[in-house]
Amino acid sequence: ISARVYFYYSLAHMSLGNPVSIRNKLLSMYRSACLVHDVPGQAVLQNAILANYLFYNMYGQAEMFSKMATRIEKDNNQYARYLYYIGKINAVRLHYSDADENLSQALRKCPKSAIGFRQVATKLLCIVQLLMGDVPERSMFLDIDLKRSLY
User: Fold this and answer.
1) DSSP letter assigned to residue 21
2) Are 13 and 55 in contact (CB under 8 A)?
3) What's the DSSP call for residue 102?
């Protein structure tokens, strides 16, 4: 239950346009979740903190946080979101092969019903593959859910 509360708390502040005001609160809640071994709460808070850093283009701090925090792979949805954020950080840091690997894995782990997430992750994956000098697979463009957003 606490994981949902953390998620909606972060979402509400992101929607209001002042996510910087909750960064310290998110970090303290993450510390508390680690101390009481709240694994779902840790996963949600980890993603909320990464999203907060990326919202303000603080890629260096996001990378340092992701290296310090433990990787939680139990919840596929949260893990897919985590991989997307790490892939985005790697893409900005010019680590294209790592970004390609993370984004591909995020697309494999995300549910098929998460069309918006798949659209954003696929767009970034196409850009990373083009920057690496590779041609994206044609099947990526033929997916009915992604067809409109990729053209």
Assistant:
1) G
2) no
3) H
Alpha-carbon gap, residue 50 to 61, rounded angstroms: 9
Query: Do 151 and 117 share a structural domain?
Result: yes
Residues 65, 55: contact at Cβ < 8 Å? no
Last-in-domain residue among 17, 49, 74? 74
End-to-end Cα spacing for the chain: 40
pLDDT band (50, 70, 90) for residue 49? very high
Q: Are 43 and 10 in contact (CB under 8 A)?
A: no
Residue 129 CB contacts under 8 Å (≥ 6 apart), including other chains? 100, 135, 136
pTM > 0.85: yes or no:
yes
118 and 143 share one domain: yes
Domain span including residue 80: 76-151
The amino acid at residue 86 is I
